[in-house]
């Protein structure tokens, strides 16, 4: 397998795998991404997508949820089993449960059909920018509550054990560590972490829940990433993992 560093060379020249069984949608998306300077591969079903990813590992995958045979959720799981890769899920409008499932299996973002191809291209660029290593000036280690985040290497550990985080989970954790003790509304987190002034705020809720599952000793009783009722969430390093 030709393994590429996920997110390397974000922007022009980055490889994007488009997976959709609707040839019209796939052709439109491919055309817009190609004009934006991306190298685009296409697949019409899950097995084809996995084969193409194995041959040329993508920097990002645009993945339709509803695929024949093997659905997008299973494709996402199998790709993530082979290595980290950003995923933008395409879902039908109104299928909120499916969108949340997509986020739960590790999708970094989603776009609902029918969608604006220009918006999708913008979201591809946003996710790829977030996947790039941090510049040297912003690469200092972040430590609190038993957690260590290395923005330059995009590595995070809990009590020395490496955490398997998606791009958005990593960015969310790094943001919290940079702003300890401050409460943020979901709208603020959407803007600061996702880079969007609009969007479905359930995206933030799901990612906070997934992050808690990886950084909290007891995710059902979170002590590090706390809910501030009526406001949003607050990172509380004073709690300290394993401390009373």
From TrEMBL:
Classification via Gene3D superfamilies: 3.40.50.2300, 6.10.250.690, Winged helix-like DNA-binding domain superfamily/Winged helix DNA-binding domain
GO molecular-function terms, A-Z: phosphorelay response regulator activity; transcription cis-regulatory region binding
Gene Ontology BP terms: regulation of DNA-templated transcription
InterPro entries cross-referenced by the UniProt entry: CheY-like_superfamily, OmpR/PhoB-type_DNA-bd, Sig_transdc_resp-reg_C-effctor, Sig_transdc_resp-reg_receiver, WalR-like, WH-like_DNA-bd_sf
Key word Transcription regulation present: yes
Domain Response regulatory per the UniProt entry, residue ranges: 15-128
Residue ranges of every copy of the OmpR/PhoB-type domain listed in the record: 139-237
UniProt modified residues of type 4-aspartylphosphate: 64
Residue ranges the UniProt entry marks as DNA-binding: 139-237
A GO CC term assigned to this protein in UniProt: cytosol
Keyword terms: DNA-binding, Phosphoprotein, Transcription, Transcription regulation, Two-component regulatory system
Source organism, top-level taxon: Bacteria
Any matching Pfam family: Trans_reg_C
Name of this protein: Chemotaxis protein CheY
Species per Swiss-Prot/TrEMBL record: Streptomyces caelestis
């Amino acid at each position: 397998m030709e393994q590429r560093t996920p997110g390397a060379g974000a922007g022009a020249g980055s490889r994007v795998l488009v997976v959709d069984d609707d040839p019209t949608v796939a052709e439109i998306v491919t055309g817009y991404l190609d004009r934006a300077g991306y190298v685009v591969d296409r697949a019409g079903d899950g097995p084809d997508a996995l084969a193409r990813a194995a041959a040329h590992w993508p920097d990002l995958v645009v993945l339709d949820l509803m695929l024949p045979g093997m659905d997008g959720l299973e494709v996402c799981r199998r790709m993530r089993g082979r290595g980290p890769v950003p995923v933008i899920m395409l879902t039908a409008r109104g299928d909120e449960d499916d969108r949340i499932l997509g986020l739960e299996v590790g999708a970094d973002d989603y776009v609902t059909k029918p969608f604006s191809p220009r918006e999708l291209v913008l979201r591809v660029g946003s996710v790829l920018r977030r996947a790039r290593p941090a510049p040297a000036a912003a690469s200092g280690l972040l430590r609190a509550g038993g957690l260590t985040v290395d923005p330059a290497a995009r590595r995070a550990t809990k009590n020395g054990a490496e955490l398997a985080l998606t791009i958005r989970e990593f960015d969310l954790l790094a943001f919290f560590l940079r702003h300890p003790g401050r409460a943020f509304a979901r709208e603020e987190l959407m803007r600061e972490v996702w880079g969007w002034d609009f969007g479905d705020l359930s995206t933030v809720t799901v990612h906070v829940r997934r992050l808690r599952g990886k950084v909290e000793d007891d995710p059902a009783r979170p002590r590090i990433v706390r809910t501030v009722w009526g406001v949003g969430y607050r990172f509380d390093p004073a709690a300290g993992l394993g401390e009373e």
